[in-house]
Each structure stands twice: as structure tokens, then as C-alpha cells.
């Protein structure tokens, strides 16, 4: 079945979501977040799009932007190629990192523009990662009007600097395009140990390395599917990060 055509925005402004392939975690550490932001800023200058808000969640990305000199398909192909090439080299992996097709919705008026702006910035709060948007380091909320990656003039003209924080604190029932697995729920080290004891008779997590190859793969997939991060599984079991990553 052919894919449905994207709805074009008469304003040129879109809310974009990119998700990790198979809903897997994209960002493992601070360097990963910083590298994606570097790619975003680099191609923002090259492709001429305006960026009004962004939020990098562990397994997906929200952007609010205005199409510039190049179509969005080409923009995200450039950004994706740059970031994934670097990422695959770092983690010794191959293949895709993001789903092939980003999601987009047209933003046609000022009211909805501000709704999407707030929705993006409150994403980590609603996901239970933090209690205030200012606590989350991987979004455009903090130092919004001094952030050189953000085109803030439009927002400043709509609500002003003084109203920016108040607007985000207003009670709201904002509904925007989203994905189903908004939060990435993590489990504790003790929960990892319990899963291994109950399912593979491993009294010590390092005993995973003594399992048959088939059972080792099943154990890794069980832990990742239960909410453990790749880095957490690697740290506890002693299996290399690259090997764990293979079984996502």
C-alpha cells in the first residue's frame, strides 16, 4: 500500500517527530545528545530552516521548525546521515538508527504554534523524567532567548520574554501529534538481578556470560525489553556494549 502524502503547511511550519527504529533508545549518554544538536545546528545553517523548539527524548525527537531553502526530506536525510555515521562508528554498529520516515503535522496558526511549543518543552515532564521543564538539559526551554540554536523572535513577538515561563506553567490539556511510547521506563539494578535469577538461575549477574549463546541472547533481550538500558546491561553483566547493542 502506498504511503499517504504529507499534509503541506501553508505557513511552512511543522511539528516533527523522529523515533528510534523498533522504538529503541537513541541517546545513551551526554555526548550522543550533544552530537545530534551539533548536526542540527550545522544543517540549520546550511539548509536555511528556522528552528523554534526542540526536545531530545531518550528514544525520540520533537522539533518545531519552518522549512527553508531545502525540503524537509532532504534536511533530515542530511542530519540523519551525519549523526548515524558518527553514532555507528562510536558504538561499532551498522544499519539504520531512526525509523525511515519522520512524522510531521502542519502548524497553521499562532495559537497552535504556541501549543506545540509548550507541548514539546513539557514532553519530559509528562514522561515523568523531571518535574520542571528547566530541569531537562536536552530541550530548548532553558535559556530559550539566549540559545543560539533557536530562532526565538517569533515567540518573543507572540508572548514576550516575561510571559514565556508563565505560559508554560498554565494548566493545559494540550493534544498534539505524538508517539505511543512517550516515556522510556527504566528498571533498577536490583530488578535486573531479580529477572536473571527468576528466568535464568543466575545468582550473580556475571553468570550470564556462562550461558549458552542462545540463552545469553534471550537474557539480553529480556532485560532490554523490560526497560534496562544497553549501558546498564553491559555494566552489570560485563558483556561489551557493542555485543548488547546487537540484540536490540
Approximately how much beta-strand content do the residues carry?
Answer: 5-15%
Assign the CATH superfamily of the largest domain. Transposase IS200-like
The helix content is 40-55%
Low-confidence stretches: none
CATH class of the largest domain: Alpha Beta
Integer count of domains: 2
Q: Which series of helices and strands comes N to C?
A: EHEEHEHHHHHHHH
What's the count of strands? 4
Largest sheet: 4 strands, antiparallel
**Order of the strands making up the biggest sheet:** 2-3-1-4
Shape: elongated
CATH fold naming of the largest domain: Alpha-Beta Plaits
Write a brief caption for the model.
By secondary structure, the chain is an alpha+beta fold. The protein contains ten helices and four strands, in the order βαββαβαααααααα.
General description of the model:
The structure is a single chain. By secondary structure, the protein is α+β, with helices and mostly antiparallel strands. The chain has two domains: 13-169, Transposase IS200-like (Alpha-Beta Plaits, 2-Layer Sandwich), CATH 3.30.70.1290; 189-246, no CATH class. 44% of the residues lie in helices and 10% in strands. The chain has helices spanning 30-47, 72-91, 110-121, 123-126, 153-158, 160-169, 189-200, 213-225, 230-237, 241-246, and strands at residues 13-19, 50-56, 60-66, 103-106. A hairpin with a 3-residue loop joins strand 2 (50-56) and strand 3. The two termini are 28 Å apart.
